[in-house]
Amino acid sequence: MIDLLQRVGLNKYEAEAYAALLRYGPLTGYELGKRSEVPLSRSYEILERLSTKGLALVQPGDPPRYAAEASEQFLDRTRAATTTTLDALARALAEAGPSAIPEGFWVVRGQAQILAHANTSIARAQRTLALRIAPAQSEFVAEALAQARARGCRTLPPPIDATARAEDDATLLLVIDDREAMVGTLTPADRAQVVVGANRAFVAALGRSLEPRRLVAPAQLAAPATASPEPQPLSWLDWEQHKQRRLLNVQPENRIA
């Protein structure tokens, strides 16, 4: 809980103080210093700061006592403030210009960042998307895929590959609208990385690898042929050499002794 409170804007001591007030009820500064990790020398300062932020109620006295604001009110206020901030940020980012992958190839590192990038890319898909992802991580993109299908985006299934290897379970391949693609690994989580790009050849190559088709198993490849192979066409150089040999055989006077 302390970590989550810090993520929504409280510092460590404020989070410790608010959690202690929720856990123990109204406290004086002295009691807070004894029951939490807030230093006793700073306990009243931290409680006053919570009061200023509307996270604590004050009961005047000598010494004053402090009680936590109801957690429901705290969550409602925080949610509203966060939504307002994100809406304003969205408008500012839209005015800054459209986001697009720059020219060239780029690397995204870390499993969490890769999955976040994949979800953002899927959310931008309008026509088609093709995806191959390790089963262990598929749940993290399931919602984005469902939303893409709901808005009419056609999702292509991965190929049925009889030669798939165990390490393929760690890979991620994604092609969006035949205009951008990403490929790489998802494990180990701290060293995972993918390459992303909008290069046409890069996108086309990954797109072909994700086309729904049945690949041939090695056992089928090793099966003996039942018919003799058809003769392969001769290249221009082979044809010319063949013609010269035939002419020498037909005209003995041209042979070299």
Structural class: alpha+beta
Strand order of the largest sheet: 3-8-7-6-4-5
CATH topology of the domain at 105-209: Endonuclease, Chain A
Number of strands: 8
Low-confidence stretches: 214-223, 233-237, 250-257
% residues in beta strands: 15-25%
Shape: elongated
CATH arch. level architecture of the domain at 105-209: 2-Layer Sandwich
Give the count of helical stretches: 10
Please, could you describe this protein's structure?
With 257 residues, the chain is α+β, with helices and mostly antiparallel strands. Among the domains are: 2-72, Winged helix-like DNA-binding domain superfamily/Winged helix DNA-binding domain (Arc Repressor Mutant, subunit A); 105-209, Endonuclease Chain A (Endonuclease, Chain A, 2-Layer Sandwich), CATH 3.30.870. The protein is 46% helix and 15% strand. The protein has ten helices and eight strands. It has helices spanning 2-7, 12-24, 29-35, 43-52, 71-96, 111-124, 139-150, 200-209, 218-222, 236-250, and strands at 56-59, 65-68, 105-109, 128-133, 154-156, 171-176, 180-185, 193-197. The protein has a six-stranded mixed β-sheet with strand order 3-8-7-6-4-5, with helices on both faces. A two-stranded antiparallel sheet has the order 1-2. Helix 6 (111-124) packs parallel to helix 7.
